[in-house]
Amino acid sequence: MPNYAYIILIPLLPLAAFVVLGLFGRKYLRGISGVIGTGAVLISVVLSLWVAYGYFFSVGKVDGVYQPVIAWKAVWLSFSPGLSIDMSIILDPISVMMIVVVSFVSFMVHLFSLGYMKGEERFGTYYAFLGLFTFSMLGLVLSGNIFEIYIFWELVGCSSFLLIGYYFDRPTAVAAAKKAFIVTRFADLGFLIGILILSLHAETLDFRTLIQRFTEPSPQLAGITSASFLGISLLSWGLTLVFIGGAGKSALFPLHIWLPDAMEGPTPVSALIHAATMVVAGVYLVARLYPVYALSDPAVLQVILFVGAISALLAAVIACTQTDIKRVLAYSTMSQIGYMMFALGTFHSGEEGALGYTAGMFHLFTHAFFKALLFLCAGVIIHKVHSNEMRDMGGLRRSMPLTHGCFLIACLAIAGIPPFSGFFSKEEILLAAYRANKFVYVIGLLTSCLTAFYMFRLYFSVFWWREGGVSAGDHGEGPASMKIPLVVLAAGALLAGFVPFSRLVTFDGAAMDTPGVGVFAIAPVMLAILGILLAGYLYRKESDRPRKAAGVFGVLYKLAYHKFYIDEIYSFVTKKIIFNLIGRPAAWIDRNIVDGLMNSLAGVTARISAGIKGFQSGRVQDYVLYFFAGIAVLAVLFIYIYT
Amino acid sequence: MNQVPLSHILFVSTALFFIGMYGLFTRRNMITMLMSVELILNSVNINFVAFNRYLYADKLEGVFFTLFIVAIAAAEAAVAIAIIINLYRNLHSIDVEAADEMKF
Fold it and tell me: Which residues of A touch B102 (CB under 8 A)?
């Protein structure tokens, strides 16, 4: 086995950048902090590509099957013989794929930020946070045991919190950061309990051992399936709870409420964290434990299937009505993640039953490129227009030709038009869904059509709509550091679909032939083109058609515009129900019973001491009186007892 | 020669004791209170001597105790007067009511 130990540098370099910039970035390295951070990540990218090349093309394959490799391992906390928490790095197709995606997108965002964040007061701090995030995310995907992944999971959440709240002088950003942290933290509670249940019964934390014990007949599997709680086996509980953790991080319905608000962060951060990398951590987590989900507990997989499908459709509907460019993209992200999730949920035991696994991972891969590209384009547009509102834009295609081209490529990719990358991954997902569950397939088709519609609604409103467009404060499309990432990512969005993914990342590690797209692709592509045409009809020229179209949908439009009132439902539940029914009685008990008990104890003591302190009058003759009284009592006792 | 009965002597010492006690309670002047304490001590001395003489005439412990008590009373008087002087320096009074700061 070749020596992979250098792989540890991939996450450690961004960490080093974080430490250096965090300590010295503000005072001493202000000017070059961006270069330091970008340079560190660049080395990580090179190393990741080298690792990926080595793994996929020279040594990873044994007898035609990709084997997981433990590249590095160290005991971190040892409690007793047989019980220790290790730190290890696992290399298998999905983790190798993820380090490439994460480090690559992270590098693009670092580069982009050199121009975008220039002149910011806390430039060094920004790069420090980006480094911390990159470190955590790379650590997350490389984690070899379930506890380690949890540590990085929380670190990712923490750095996401820091970056959303980067503009901490804006109350909305602070509120959004808190919301993101609390919602994901709430979901992580499920994850933690899930980890405890699974690892307790598997008697290990290590992923490979755990998967082995839960997929092959073993005493541990028998133990966890026979134990049940509320009529559902503990295995299902554990897996569902782990999935809830993933759903929180991946902004799946109904835990998605934090993602649109998280757009308060700087736009490159949205591109990195809330589009390409962190939000797919939930998908990655399910993929990591996929054998257990697929082989031992299909019921949970059904839950995943439907949660994914509902999220995909719901978010797509909401995205059609939003007017904030970044929020449209946020809902689009949520929708695409729903896509990946239900792709994972389509497992069935027949032939090519695990197509969904490959398809979901493929979509994760392609989505990272075009969604990061969309966000970075949005960044350029916002940089120019100084507004997030689509209404303030329009007619930008002449003044921003490069952004226009890149944005168009990304839109075509996400809409699933051949030969752009999104087409290939989406076809695979829809094929998997078609074979597994027709109902979900229909939802997928519908979502695909809506996706094309809302993306081109965005495209036409920003770049067409009216002539002329914004010209005030014209400073082109930004410096080269902002243009290069756009071009590179556009190339990725264009070409990523041609990666022979089903030969590299499959459920059992063996190469799988891509099912021919052929006839099957006609329906989705036609629907996507329909969506594009409709968007073009409504938004290409300034008119009141959109308003009329909204009128046609009436209540549905209003519901979607208000995001189905899910935020309101949450605040109703928390404020009215939880605060009133649980919070207040608890506060009453605390104030009256707990505090009351302590106060009465203290009060009794104080009253007794107040009563007896009069004896210490300070007057000598009182003391003399007590003294003689005492002697008299003693004398009387003496006489009566001894005579 | 007709001896004075023991009970008479005990009456005297008891009277002396209670006179001292009365003085201790009622006087506010510290010197007077010190004198009352001396009276109490002396009533005890009388008891010691009387019991020695009447009950154990062949022994001398009672007399010796008395001598010790007299010596210790002298030392105690010196200490007490030193305290009184100090109090006077601080309070410009030897009224015991003036020294009531040592309380809760």
Answer: 618
